[in-house]
Amino acid sequence: MDQPHVEQRGGSGAVIGLVVLLVAAAVALRWMTATLSQGTPASGRGAPIAPGVVRPPSPQDHRRGPANAPITVVEYVDLECPYCKQFHATLQAFVNQPDLAGHVAWVYRHLPVAEVHPKARREAEAAECAGELGGDDKFWAYVDRVFAVTPSNNGLDPAQLPAIAGQLGLDRDAFLSCLDSGRHRARVDADADEAYRAGAEGTPFTVVLGPTGRAYPINGVVSPEELALIVAQVAQE
After folding, report:
1. Residue 221: which of 18, 4, 43 has the closest Cα?
2. What is the C-alpha separation between 134 and 156, in angstroms, rounded?
3. Angle, vertex CA 147, rays to CA 142 and CA 153, nearest 5
4. Which end of the chain has less neighbouring CB within 10 Å, N or C?
5. How would you classify the pairing of strands 205-209 and 104-110?
6. Span 163-169, mean pLDDT?
């Protein structure tokens, strides 16, 4: 298969500028490290993933940020994982840096670890149903809300799933019909299979796609500062 590709924005000068912005972001986010890096730490980025294992971002993905960003952070998520809940806040802080607008995109994919969190698969399908009924904005709003209310570790009351949909203005009956149909199960499973092929050892699992399409894995939690520095390294390659 072809190597994953992310459209490049400009030449070497643009890449150098991006690296400068990322290092500046790392410095700006330093103060957050103590409060956002209390989970299982990652040891930094791993060796490059074999070409073709991680599919390139597409319009079918759930994305925050531009489609032609030179850097894409692909996150594989278990909605009942406490470290994913923590890292969700880290990624929000990272991608919302004003200086990084247009340079970094965030793509969300699923990795429910059913052996540990049997509720997580249905929650992942629920997020897809929110996206089906309300588009990508509702998908992200649903994920944000689940992380806001779940105590993690399989603690979310299943009755909250349609309740959250209603809070977001979605039709509850249509939402439940979608969820009970199981029609998004294959997508969730495909995301999880891809993550494991790419070397996921648990959640969160993150892949950073650089300007050349190379993919680098991160197993576990990193702070906003560490993430910015890893992304800056990838941007130079």
Report:
1. 43
2. 22
3. 130
4. N
5. unpaired
6. 98
Higher pLDDT, 17 or 172: 172
**188 to 77, 144, 145, 193, 208: CA distances (angstroms):** 10, 18, 19, 9, 20
* Dihedral, CA of residue 197, residue 202, residue 206 and residue 212, to nearest 10: -30
Token pair in block for residue 214? 């190379």
Angle at the Cα of 112 from the Cα atoms of 137 and 127, rounded to 5 degrees: 20
Question: Could you tell me the pTM of the whole model?
Answer: 0.83
**In 3D, which of 233, 198, 214 has the Cα closest to residue 8?**
214
The residues that bridge with 72 in the sheet, in sequence order, are: 105, 209
User: What is the per-residue pLDDT across 193-237, written as a single tens digit (0 to 9) for each?
Assistant: 999 999 999 999 999 999 988 999 999 999 888 888 888 888 887
Annotate 181-202 with DSSP letters as a single string: HTTTHHHHHHHHHHHHHTT--S
**Which DSSP letter does residue 214 get?**
-
Bridge partners, 217 (sequence order): 207
